[in-house]
Automatic annotation (TrEMBL):
PROSITE patterns: CNMP_BINDING_3, HTH_CRP_2
Transcription listed as a keyword: yes
Organism per entry: Acinetobacter gandensis
Lineage summary: Bacteria, Pseudomonadati, Pseudomonadota, Gammaproteobacteria, Moraxellales
Name recorded for this polypeptide: Cyclic nucleotide-binding protein
Keyword Endoplasmic reticulum included in the entry's annotation: no
Domain HTH crp-type span(s) in chain numbering: 149-221
CDD domains registered for this protein in UniProt: CAP_ED
Molecular function per GO: DNA binding; DNA-binding transcription factor activity
TM helices/strands, residue ranges: none
Domain named Cyclic nucleotide-binding: residues: 15-118
Alphabetically ordered keywords of this record: DNA-binding, Transcription, Transcription regulation
Length: 235
């Protein structure tokens, strides 16, 4: 059962806040809330669909580890971000792993509850499509930024995405991002050394402050300006 603080968090989620009151009540009534320890899997690539999830506290690494132990990270899901809906739509097994990077509190809307809701209200598919297209939009934006932006712009943009919960937050309330430099390097497909240099530069500009496995954003406006600066052209 969701407590008062978790309910408030849920209502700051862009997708949830846009749902009709009945759908909100249905999710609250049927949701399971549980805790997972660091590295205790929620689901793995290849697992069957068992519901959709939201992060209430902590952080979830969405990615994959290959047979050689090499890790690829697509996103770090933090409060309050929904994930796991892709397999509902395409009826295929999970496409990636979802593993906590620290102790986390998770909300799950189980598969049977979703199926029941969709059978009774087929129009709810529209809201599932919203969740999926939200991620697709950010995936396309990331692909475009890879080709058009330098690393400092891409880093600033990714930090903005994370503060905004990849479009999940109605407003930015939290200015701290819990992430290691190694994870940031994986997300941006560059070396840890490059990320460290970029973060040091932003620290000198008083845009942010780096601590152990976390980044405090000091100047949101300046970070936004760097992320949306026009790319420099070669002369």
């Amino acid at each position: 059962m969701l407590n008062a603080q978790q309910l408030t968090q849920l209502k700051n989620n862009y997708w949830f806040a846009g749902l009709a009151e009945y759908f909100q009540h249905y999710i609250i009534q049927h949701a399971l809330v549980f805790e997972k320890d660091k590295e205790q899997r929620i689901f793995l690539s290849g697992d069957p669909f068992d519901g959709i999830y939201a992060v209430l506290d902590g952080a979830i690494r969405l990615g994959h580890i290959d047979i050689h132990g090499k890790e690829a990270v697509a996103a770090i899901a933090e409060p309050i971000m929904w994930f796991g809906e892709i397999s509902l739509v395409d009826k295929l097994p999970r496409s990636h792993d979802a593993i906590p990077t620290r102790k986390s509190t998770i909300l799950q809307l189980p598969a049977h509850a979703i199926q029941q809701l969709l059978e009774q209200y087929p129009e709810f598919w529209y809201h599932i499509a919203q969740l999926t297209s939200q991620k697709l939009r950010y995936a396309f934006m990331e692909l475009i930024s890879l080709q058009t932006q330098n690393l400092s712009q891409r880093l600033a943009q990714r930090l903005m995405y994370m503060l905004n919960g990849y479009g999940n937050h109605l407003e930015i309330q939290q200015r701290t991002i819990q992430i290691s430099q190694e994870q940031l390097a994986q997300l941006l497909m560059c070396s840890r050394q490059s990320i460290n240099q970029e973060l040091q530069q932003l620290e000198k500009m008083n845009v942010l402050k780096v601590a152990f496995k976390k980044i405090d954003i000091l100047d949101l406006q300046q970070l936004h300006q760097i992320a949306h600066a026009l790319p420099a052209h070669d002369h």
